[in-house]
Amino acid sequence: MALEHAILVSLLEKPGSGYELAHRFERSIGYFWTATHQQIYRVLGRMEGDGLLDVREVPQQGRPDKKEYSVAAPGRAALSAWLHQPVEPESIRHELAVKIRGAAFDDPAALISEVERHRKAHSDRLARYLTGEQRDFTGPEAPRPLDTGRELQHVVLRGGIAFERMTVAWLDDVLDTLHRLRAERPGAT
Fold first, then answer.
1. Each residue of 56-102: pLDDT tens digit?
2. pLDDT in tens, 3-51
């Protein structure tokens, strides 16, 4: 998927400035796509130049005017064309998994702190996803009933939650294995 498609989806959900879009990427769009502020601004400029986006200047008091982006008809057509194209199933490139396999040729216990670091990162991400789900979809303040767009946002988030739960469980298994191997190692105490 190109960053352009993620931007089109986000701006169709709600027009906004580059700053607002970057914030969405840090929050909800970050469930499935990440981008830096610099990448977002660079792509916004290119998409504006290609006629995919409409831009209007929004005056601000005491600050420079901001640009608010929305999707132009050619942008909507580009997204529609992309939505109708088949997508290849993704392959996962997992450097940590290669390190775990490679640890058979060194000291497997040396990876414990690295696996713990990964587990914490995935556990923290899972907690953020669950907090976002409660806030935006399942909690008492979430709008009812959810419209089509919100239903689809929620199903993507549920996929992220399931992935993070699976990853944390796998990392727990890896840690159990590494600790067991360390205990079985000759000279282990």
1. 999 989 998 999 999 999 999 999 999 999 988 877 778 999 999 99
2. 899 999 999 999 999 999 988 887 777 667 778 889 999 999 999 999 9
Calpha distance 55→123 (Å, rounded): 39
Q: Specify the amino acid at residue 103.
A: A
Q: Is 26 left (phi over 0), alpha (psi -120 to 50) or beta?
A: alpha
Q: Per DSSP, what are the bridge partners of residue 21?
A: none
Alpha helices of the chain — where are they, by DSSP H? 3-13, 18-26, 37-49, 73-83, 95-102, 112-133, 148-184
pTM: predicted TM-score of the whole model, two decimal places: 0.80
Tell me how far CA of residue 65 lies from CA of 20, 56, 155, in angstroms: 14, 10, 36
**3-state per-residue secondary structure call for 127-162:** HHHHHHHHHHHHCCCCCCCCCHHHHHHHHHHHHHHH
Q: Which among 166, 142, 136, 167 has a CA at the least distance from the CA of 27?
A: 136
Distance (Å, whole) CA 21 – CA 185: 51
Nearest to 115 by CA among 30, 60, 181: 181
Reading the block at residue 116, the tokens are 């713990």
Q: How far is CA 82 from CA 9, 73, 125, 183, in A?
A: 11, 14, 29, 53
Q: Which domains does the chain have, with CATH numbers?
A: 1-84 (1.10.10.10), 95-184 (no CATH)
**Cα pseudo-dihedral 73, 65, 33, 132, rounded to 10:** -110
